[in-house]
Amino acid sequence: MRAGSLVCLAAGLSGLGCYNYLPIRRSRLTPSTYLAVTLTESGSEELARYLGPNALVVRGRYLEATERGYALAVESVESRRGDMLRWAGETIVVPGEFVRAVEERFVSRSKTVLLAGAAVAGFVVAYQAFGPASGGGLGGGGGGPGGTPR
Question: How far apart, in whole angstroms, are the C-alpha atoms of residue 129 and residue 121?
């Protein structure tokens, strides 16, 4: 039972994962790649009516290159203050002249292993502290020893 629980925990954590962003060239872009597009100052100002004020990083799935720029299905927009605004995959075209950097998201194996290791260690500590015998169930009880209550 213990091994099965650990396998379930590890499988659940594998979906979480931790990510790194690495620079990518426009020529290597393929549709459905998850990107983080950092805007220039003028790009932030020009796209404010679409992305909101002070947009810094647009994250989402790359759709295609158009004559106007990068077409993205936006998942989130990070502001210059660090606020994250969630989006539902709306398509936005970010003109190339407004792009400071383009980075591709990759799963970081080292961060994911570290997270999984910490989670497993936490599970083991909790199991040892509470164990299977601490079910906390309500036992039936009757009276005290030696008979029925009066």
Answer: 12
Task: For residue 129, give every residue at least 6 positions away whose Cβ sits within 8 Å of its Cβ, in sequence order, or none.
Answer: none
The string of pLDDT tens digits covering residues 12-57 is 544 455 766 656 666 567 887 899 999 999 999 999 999 999 999 9
Query: Is 112 within the bounds of a domain?
Result: no
Cβ contacts of 7 within 8 Å, gap of 6 or more: none
149 falls within a domain: no
Cβ atoms of residues 38 and 99 within 8 Å: yes
Task: Provide the residue range defining the domain that includes 77.
Answer: 17-107
Count CB-CB contacts under 10 A for residue 1. Answer: 6
8-state DSSP, 144? S
Question: Residue 104's Cα: distance from chain center in Å?
Answer: 15
- pTM for this prediction: 0.59
Rounded Cα gap, residues 59 and 35, in angstroms = 6
DSSP assigned state of 39: E
Our count of domains for the chain comes to 1
Domain assignment present for residue 5? The answer is no
